[in-house]
Amino acid sequence: MRSLKEISMDNKIVETIESLGLSCKAVEAARLVIEDDEIQAIQDYSNTVSIKRLGYNDHGPVHMRTVAYNAVVMMGLLRNAKIQTSLETEDCGCFEDSLVAVILAGFLHDIGMSLGRQNHEMHSAYMAYPLLDRILTQIYTDVQRRVMVRSLALEGIAGHMGNRQVYSLEAGVVLIADGCDMTKGRARIPMHLLSAPKVGDIHKYSANSIEEVKLSPGQERPIRIVVEMSSEVGLFQVEEVLLGKIAASPAKGYVELYAMVQEHESKRYL
Questions:
Q1: Phi, psi at residue 257, to the nearest 5°?
Q2: Is the full-model pTM beyond 0.85?
Q3: Which of 82, 88, 109, 184 sits in a 20 to 30 Å window from 234, CA-based?
Q4: Element housing 32 (H / E)
Q5: Which of 28, 180, 19, 181 is nearest to 103 (CA)?
Q6: Side by side, which strands form the sheet with 223-229?
Q7: In the chain, helix, strand, coil percent, each to 5?
């Protein structure tokens, strides 16, 4: 069963997709993945393993929805700036095909956490394959286009950690969208459960100081990312996580990145 937070995120995702004025495919993809009981169950269990077994932050349904939402927002900003996706530049598909792939990658990118942290992005990819097939078969009658969108979504899933090279703009957007979900809400439960210090705790403390990550049109580039934090410990999250993911992304040249501690001047990274 979806929580109120998940329902709220689902509504935001669908409304944002609808605001782009496309046909029905992207909205249909979002609704299908939202209403899929198996996907909901694997997202929930991924979070159980991440938080309760491993002591990591949120890698469940709220996080995966947040990444999908971030990706949709960034895709819209790129479209408004007349930046073509990889499918468009290669004359393989349209913007909406790219958006479908990005939405599905966002919703499924961390389901491999249900097996554990190591290589979870590759576990996510093979676990997502039959789920993608089931959803895309309901959206596309054209086999060529279905296969293409599936491959693009799998690239976004397998590449979201930034430790293997991705080549499409779409996968690059998923990579950055994942890095942007680092607000204190992701660390709330692990911080509450924390008992004894251990290696990796800096990620929880750092994320706990991130108040908000804002996505908007940039002044010089299509996408402006502003990370607002309550203390400088949040800079660890920006410099060690988000900045690295942006650097590894084919969308890097389209992003401005700022970080600021409340009531202090912002620092520009990109």
A1: -125, 125
A2: yes
A3: 109
A4: helix 25-34
A5: 28
A6: 210-217, 223-229, 255-261, 267-268
A7: 60, 10, 30
Q: What is the domain range of residue 197?
A: 4-268
Answer positive or negative: Cα dihedral of 82, 86, 89, 92. Answer: negative
21: left (phi > 0), else alpha (psi -120 to 50), else beta? left
Q: What is the pLDDT of residues 77-87, one digit of tens each?
A: 999 999 999 99
CB-based contacts of 233, cutoff 8 Å, min separation 6: 202, 205, 206, 209
Tens of pLDDT, residue by residue over 240-260, are: 999 999 999 999 999 999 999
Q: Please report, for the domain that includes residue 257, its CATH number.
A: 1.10.1300
262, two tokens? 């409340």
Q: How far apart are CA 110 and CA 42, in angstroms?
A: 9
Quote the number of domains for the chain: 1
